[in-house]
Amino acid sequence: MARTLALLPLVLTLLVAAPAGATxxxxxxxxxxxxxxxxxxxxxxxxxxxxxxxxETANHAPHGLWARDYKDMLAQIRRLGFxxxxxxxxxxxxxxxxxxxxxxxxxxxxxxxGKSPLQVMDEIIAEAGRQxxxxxxxxxxxxxxxxxxxLWYGSGFSEDDWVAGWQQLARRYASTPNVVAADLKxxxxxxxTWGTGTATDWRRAAERAGDAVSAIAPRWLIVVEGIExxxxxxxxxxxxxxxxxxxxxxxxxxxxxxxxxxxxxxxYGPGVFDQPWFxxxxxxxxxxxxxxxxxxxxxxxxxxPILVGEFGGRRTGTDTVEGRWQRQFMDFLGRRGHSWTYxxxxxxxxxxxxxxxxxxxxxxxxxxxxxxxxQRREAIPYGAATAPPPPPPPPPGPTSFKAVAKLQxxxxxxxxxxxxxxxTGTTADRPARLRFRLxxxxxxxxxxxxxxxxxxxxxxxxxxxxxxxxxxxxxxATFGFCANKVGGKRKMPRELVVLR
Length: 500
Fold this sequence. Notes:
Elements: E1 31-33, E2 36-38, E3 48-51, H1 70-79, E4 84-90, H2 91-95, H3 117-130, E5 134-141, H4 159-173, E6 179-183, H5 202-216, E7 221-225, E8 261-264, H6 283-300, E9 307-308, H7 321-336, E10 339-342, H8 365-375, E11 401-410, E12 414-423, E13 433-437, E14 444-448, E15 451-455, E16 458-462, E17 475-484, E18 494-499
Parallel strand pairs: 3-4, 3-10, 4-5, 5-6, 6-7, 7-8, 9-10
Antiparallel strand pairs: 1-2, 11-12, 12-17, 13-16, 13-18, 14-17, 15-16
Helix pairs in contact: 4-5, 7-8
């Protein structure tokens, strides 16, 4: 994602029930079990945090140290309930000899004076550990301030340089207990592909770098983002930079240590770019559909955990599209139990602002209130507060609807279909449930926009309450799913019925 100012590091927070007396750092190392990140004792661990950027810029140090001491900054992060930090860096920073933008007046930041960028990173990580904060390292770019570059190589750096940079950091921090993850590349986009086997194949590169890191730092999580361009079997038309993880359906990442893999989409609102889905007739339903098809299916299938590496925006109220989006996404994250790191701690992120205001000390209280509600996994309202309650639903029964199953994508071992519903009546009406028959040998491997109940060949799908009414004569896409082939052939749904 393009940003007006510098990129920020990820601060990750983990707020879950811990054994009595255990600190956050003592719960490391982390690993995965199905769709869940777990601590060393096998207990669920939800990463919740913020990005603090600057190492990836020409300053070669976290921003804001011109205004405050780094120890004070990290202590405030911890007090607000975050318990990890995502630190973006550039490959150029790893080779640099000096920093800038750090104030040493009055004894401030004294421990950083005269140190190289890597030595400053050493001290930031060490102090984070003393504050009981975990650290996720994020390769944001090759060159300084190069976040708009699409690939993991370029600007004078090769793929070998990128892998070597990660190996350098793995050797440096493999034994540092609060360094828990490597986010291999921020937001691959543009020329990046998935599963093509070419030089631009991000899946191939992530497997290479991930295994190289794990060979040195086997305790680290390996965080893999998506791409922007199209992938085989893609269901959504477009994605954010690094947000397209639909390639995982057919071509999942294969690591030597599979229980360290975490997938990481990025999600933003119209304050970053006014995507067409923010003008949809039913924005909440459209967003829920995008998240289900775009990345949540990975967790729903138990394939791997999700860590939303970046999301954020300036507006938080229900009176703006961005505010409603931000609230709905936080509510979604809390309900699904996904890990996340908020963008950003820094106030100088031009598109989103930060948790801190421009004085680098005062917090944005509205943002903090929402983030702390998310930390507690509380429901977050995102609609208009004065909206009247919906009328009671009519009793269940047949409706004036016709449903058809439409093939959306197909490959050698599987296929995906969507169920489209047409209102054949004379008044607007909302479908509530779908019923159909499916060959018992066909397993629904992932689905979206509905809750599935199955008994043998009989399948009933309860549609989300957010699904809107369909006008007379109009059609709407509803439920969708992906399934296996039987004997090399797909077996489509039969006897489709729409119920209230």
